[in-house]
């Protein structure tokens, strides 16, 4: 009786909490926005050059036929086709031509899994054997191996060996055959959950899980729940569903010519690479995935929740990154990232978040790639075996970048951040105990006592005179940002971080006072700029204090050569007399020059050249 009472009490307490409707603080995190209203028109200026690059690439890669498109803000704004969909009658590729997209199918399978998850029909952490009994007796590689889960399969971390190109030839296998293979056992290359290893087999298993969890054949579920809701009416897993005049037949380039590739029927491995689609249909799909960004209040339009579409585009299995150069004197390049759910996720020197997936089968090659925070995506398909688009996509993004309009959305400040900016600015101008106590988080005056802050902030007037409140803030996120307070002399760089309290209170304040360089400092900085162009030992001697390490300075300047020619820009920090840091706008990226002078002789005591963090990879 006592146990039953406890269970009843637990039910009464837990159930309301579990079923309570979530609350939403609308406007607490404002939606990021593109700053340039002419952005789309400026990006379009790159289209003619991208067309030349695409046509030259398709010819150079010996593609019988190919298509490429650019998506901006959910719209297919540019598309070009070239070549033939079949070599016999020379029928041209058109916007309605349907190609097999191979492994790009994996993201459709992942989306189907997430839709079933959202409907409560499965969990990503369910053992795969719950849905595929043939896996129940699978011999694992180590005694401490975890059971393979759906999440392992989605992220290629189930431990099966990489199976390209073997998997490419298994499309037509029946479910019964594949289940017989599973009962016979699957060799492991790594224990589950320990490493990334690309597995077509694993996505074939996911297709069977979709069938078991939904009660519908995999291809029917994907058609009814993803393809049709997105208006992808030309897309199918069955080649016979497509009119003959729209099919791109597959070829390989061999012995100086194109030879037909046999087309495998859709089967158990179709979930890893069997989908057929057109340029317009693929653009709709990529546009939907791109529309998951930014997070916002408007209603979901499906076919899966925006949050689930974003989840697909986050790293689920990390892959080691690397920094490298194409040639020994080339620029440093960086790549890091991993695999999401049916999608690759990466970061480069230029872009923080690049999402996409390629596809390759006998007879076909394809790629889709997009920048979620930039609202720009690329798609390409060809009917040549493993005919990829990686090189031309990189060139296309470079052309879009050259327009100056390929920039991410700008973070917007929250009302709480704007309010805190106004309050902190007021405190800096004139301290008020009541205001300070009202806006301060409980740590602020424990870290630095209020009286000490009051004294320090009041002393700023001695060097800067009267300062004015900030007029705009540079938000890093909804609860952290920096702004500039202009003063009679110089300015203050102010930064704040708000605490996780309600309402959000100020937990951190930083103030960097800045005075512009005086005449002597300005002259020295100009001389430093000339020395960056051409080292002159006599000039260095004329400005050097006895303590200056001239040899170190020479090495320092020589090491800056990869940045190219530099121009002196705005002052970033310093008191203007003893030290000043100025921006250097260089051909290969920004730097800062920190110049120090002896306060009595006004001679140079040191120069540091510092790559600015806004550039992710140095030359």
Question: Would you write up a description of this structure?
Answer:
The model is unreliable at 3-15 (pLDDT under 50). The strands form 5 sheets. Strands 3-2-1-13-12-11-10-9-8 form a 9-stranded antiparallel β-sheet. It has a 4-stranded antiparallel β-sheet with strand order 14-15-16-17, covered by helices on one side. A 4-stranded antiparallel β-sheet has the order 18-19-20-21. It is 32% helix and 23% strand. A hairpin with a 4-residue loop joins strand 9 (332-339) and strand 10 (344-348). It has helices at 2-19, 39-44, 47-60, 105-118, 150-154, 175-184, 200-214, 218-227, 270-273, 279-290, 306-312, 390-402, 415-429, 433-439, 444-447, 450-464, 519-533, 537-543, 550-559, and strands spanning 65-72, 75-86, 91-92, 98-100, 251-254, 257-260, 276-278, 317-325, 332-339, 344-348, 354-361, 364-371, 376-382, 473-477, 480-486, 491-498, 506-514, 566-574, 579-586, 589-597, 604-611. The longest helix is centred in the first third of the chain and has 18 residues, at 2-19. It has 3 domains: 39-321 and 334-402, Beta-lactamase; 415-514, Nuclear Transport Factor 2, Chain: A; 519-611, Nuclear Transport Factor 2, Chain: A, CATH 3.10.450. With 619 residues, the chain is of the alpha+beta class.
Instruction: Note the quaternary state here.
Output: single chain
Q: From the 3D structure, determine the CATH topology of the largest domain.
A: Beta-lactamase
Structural class: alpha+beta
* Number of separate helices: 19
User: What is the CATH class of the largest domain?
Assistant: Alpha Beta
Low-confidence stretches: 3-15
Number of domains: 3
**What's the CATH architecture of the largest domain?**
3-Layer(aba) Sandwich
Full CATH superfamily name of the largest domain: DD-peptidase/beta-lactamase superfamily
Please state how the strands of the largest beta sheet are arranged side by side: 3-2-1-13-12-11-10-9-8
Mean pLDDT: 95
- Give the overall silhouette: globular
Would you report the number of β strands?
Answer: 21
What share of the residues lie within helices? 25-40%
